[in-house]
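Hi there,

I know you've been waiting on this one. I reran it after we fixed the sequence typo, so this is the corrected version. Both the input and the resulting structure follow.
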Amino acid sequence: MREAINVGVEKLVAEAQDAILVLDDSETIRFANPAARQLFLLESENLVGRPFGYPATSGEVTELDVPLKDGQVRTIEMRISNTEWRGESAKLVILRDVTERKLAEIMLRWAHDELERRVRERTAELEETNTALKVLLKRREEDRKNTEENIICNVREIILPYLEKLKNTRLDVQQKVFLNILENNVNEIISPFVRNLFWHFSNLTPMEIQIATLLQEGRTAKEMAGLLNVSINTIKSHKANLRNKLGLRKKDVNLRTFLSAMKKE
């Protein structure tokens, strides 16, 4: 019965897909299945009787780099367990060629490292672009402020003095009205409120800017209509357009309060 079992085990070992060796107590190869012969590129008679040549510790799983006859080096996963072979104590060595798996792992690590490298490079590029953009935006803001300051300075030094001189000349009523309108419009142009309003909402019309200026000053619709020589309905229509352009449509925000807050910025 025991002999029959041993024969069955030997047959099972011989047909296994993994390379299997049986070592005696001196770690000499006593059996090699066809898969082992194929792995080592040696015939059975050239394996059996040879020293195994590698540390064979039972219960461990190790990897070996095994040079073959054709010059290749294969990575072998080795598992060893104690057993009996033909009535004697022995070691069963199961060898599995994991070269392809190790190459796949290496390629996967390389791909991962390459991806990380590209991410780092792209991140560095984005940071450089972001820095350059911040510099450009800062320069643009400085240029805007310089331009505004130059305009204000020119208006105050070149235009306003002549308006003051005109006031002291002999003007009829209509000319005085036009001069007052001109002076008010010039002051509105250099007003911080108007500049701030136009900077944030450049799509406003001149009439809307005038109404916004009067509104934040506390003028009523009737007063604005009289000053601008338009109807109250026209003022209401422009106020509705202002709310839309300022993003206040369907919001419970007072238009005058909003404009007054902009004046403080």
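Quick highlight: The two ends are 101 Å apart (CA to CA).

Best,
R. S.
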